[in-house]
Structure formats: C-alpha cells, structure tokens
Write a structure and sequence with these properties.
MetI-like fold; globular; 329 residues; mainly alpha; 68% helix; 2 strands
C-alpha cells in the first residue's frame, strides 16, 4: 500500500510516496476484526492472571481448611471451596499460570525453535538431511497425537524425576523436584511431537519456494553467507504462516496439558492445574452427578478456563489466517 503526502519546496508542491509494510497492513486489518480483538483481550487477561498469580490469588491454593468445605461463592471465596476446603479461585489462578507456562515453553521449544530451525535447514539444503528429517516426522505423525503424548509422558516421567533428583544430590541445590520443574520439563518434551513437524513442514515448503526467487539468487551471487541468507532474507518472508500456525497450535497445546494433568501424568500435586481441578471433581466420592447438582461451580470454573484458552487461540488463529492470506481478503 502506498500513501502520498504533499510538501512544499521553494513554493513548488512536491508529492512524496510513503509505503506501508505488509506486516503493518496485516495488523491494521487484524485490529478491524471484532472477534479477534475480543479473543486477544481474553487471552491478555488469562496470561496476565497467570503471570501475576501470586499477586492476584487471595489464598494459598494448597491450604486445606476442613471447616469450610464445599462452600459456595462468597466475598471471601470468590468461586467457593472444594471438598478439602481449598479456595477454588486461587487454585484456578495458579492453574492458569501452569497452562501459561506450558503454552509458552511448548511454543518456544517445539514450534519456534525446533520446527522453524529444521524447516529452514531442510528447505535450503535438501538432500539426505531433508529426506531423513521428513521420514522421522512422518513416522512420528503416524501415531495418534494424544496417545503418543501420553506414552511419552508416562515413559519419561520416572526417568526425568530421577535425573532431577540426582542433579539435586550432585549440586546440593534443593527444591528442583518440589518446584515442579521436572513436571514442566516432562510435559514440554511430551508435547514436542504435537508441534514441531507441522511447523517444520510449513517452513520447509515456504523456503523451497523462496530459495528460487531472484533476490535469493542475487544474494548468493554476491557471496552472502548461508546463516545470514537464511535468517535475514528467508526467515522474515516466512513469518506470516509461522504466526498463523503457532497461534492455532497453542490451543491444542493447552488442551493436551489439561488432558495429561487430568489422567495423572501431567503436573503433579501439590501444584495446581486446570486438569487436576477437573479430575478432583470428577473422581471425588460423591460422584460427578451430585457435584453438578449441588456445586456446579467446582466443575464449571476449570472447564470455562480451558474452553476460553482453546477457543480464543483458535479464533485468533483464524483471524490471523484471514489477514495474512491474500486469497481470503
């Protein structure tokens, strides 16, 4: 897009052209979409809540108070309490923090670092390395995603926990296991198959197209180094599909983390998580039906939170696809 501005030079009007970058134009179209703005606002609130959970929570999420069990919402307990007397609002806030950490780590390690790097390398160099990475990715993607994630998490958990305990013994640093670092690492590794191959294949396809463009051939002709060519010329021109794919995939990452915690191989007590909150309500002694009848807020609170995560990321991904894809304008 080109806009014109009129200046005066020695009494003679001069018309100057000013162009807007495609990214700026796309952001302008994005901010005109009301659904995208609502989704971004909700995600901002969720991530702000998770980042500042210690300041927002009004109770310790693990404090058991048997004198105030199964209470309804009140001024002291905004979402009520569970069967152990723990404050549901505080547990929900810290559960949001767990999901925020997992989505951020999953995005950085899987989609961005591994997927983008391998996509650039395989698309540019091709050959044996490209064929090897593609065959490995196809082998991994042949398994159902959630079953592979469960298998990896269940297999890796005891080994990683033992490794972290050994690190504590060797270094004398206490609290690595109790802080939940091992749990976050296990889930992050287990979620890698969910994100890296799709991103790698997307970036690879973009690089295969871009490497034949005249500006790439000109850069090669003047002796531009390979790293500079990939990260200065090729990578910026693949940002649009990367942003769309990453935003759409974060909803799946959030949902997978909830499922792992729900079945007991994700974040372990006493660290709160949304999946653990749903499991506590589902498998408690009174039964799910009695909870829904007498204390629906105990189940609705975590379900609404995970629903908001998944829905907002998917809506934002669709909106980004609309603004970056010229065929949908």
């Amino acid at each position: 897009m080109v806009t014109t501005t009129a200046d005066v030079n020695d009494g003679i009007p001069v018309v100057r052209e000013r162009s807007h970058s495609p990214f700026r134009m796309a952001m302008g179209r994005l901010f005109k979409k009301k659904i995208a703005l609502v989704a971004m606002a909700i995600l901002f609130v969720l991530y702000f809540t998770g980042i500042f959970a210690p300041l927002i929570a009004n109770h310790d999420p693990n404090t058991i108070n048997l004198r105030s069990t199964q209470e309804g919402p009140s001024s002291e307990h905004f979402f009520g309490t569970d069967r152990a007397g723990r404050d549901l609002f505080s547990r929900a806030v810290y559960g949001i923090r767990t999901t925020v950490i997992i989505t951020a780590v999953g995005l950085v390690t899987g989609s961005l670092f591994l997927g983008v790097t391998l996509g650039l390398l395989t698309g540019y160099f091709q050959g044996i390395f490209d064929a090897f990475v593609m065959r490995v990715g196809e082998l991994v993607s042949a398994f159902p995603d959630i079953l592979l994630i469960i298998l990896l998490a269940a297999t890796l958990r005891p080994r990683i926990v033992d490794l972290v305990r050994n690190i504590e013994d060797w270094t004398g640093i206490d609290g690595l296991v109790s802080s939940g670092a091992a749990d976050f690492f296990v889930i992050s590794v287990a979620l890698l198959p969910l994100s890296w191959f799709g991103m790698m294949r997307l970036v690879r396809g973009q690089v295969l197209t871009l490497r034949t463009m005249p500006y790439v051939e000109a850069a090669n002709a003047i002796g531009v180094s390979t790293p500079r060519l990939m990260f200065t010329h090729l990578l910026p021109n693949t940002l649009a599909p990367i942003i769309v794919s990453a935003s759409s995939g974060l909803g799946a990452v959030a949902g997978s983390e909830v499922i792992l915690s729900f079945i007991g191989i994700g974040i372990q007590p006493p660290h709160p998580s949304i999946g653990r909150m749903i499991a506590d309500v589902t498998f408690q002694g009174g039964g799910l039906v009695s909870v829904l009848r007498d204390h629906p807020e105990q189940l609705l609170t975590p379900i609404v939170i995970v629903f908001a995560f998944i829905l907002c990321w998917n809506l934002l991904g669709d909106a980004l696809n609309d603004v970056f894809n010229p065929r949908t304008r």
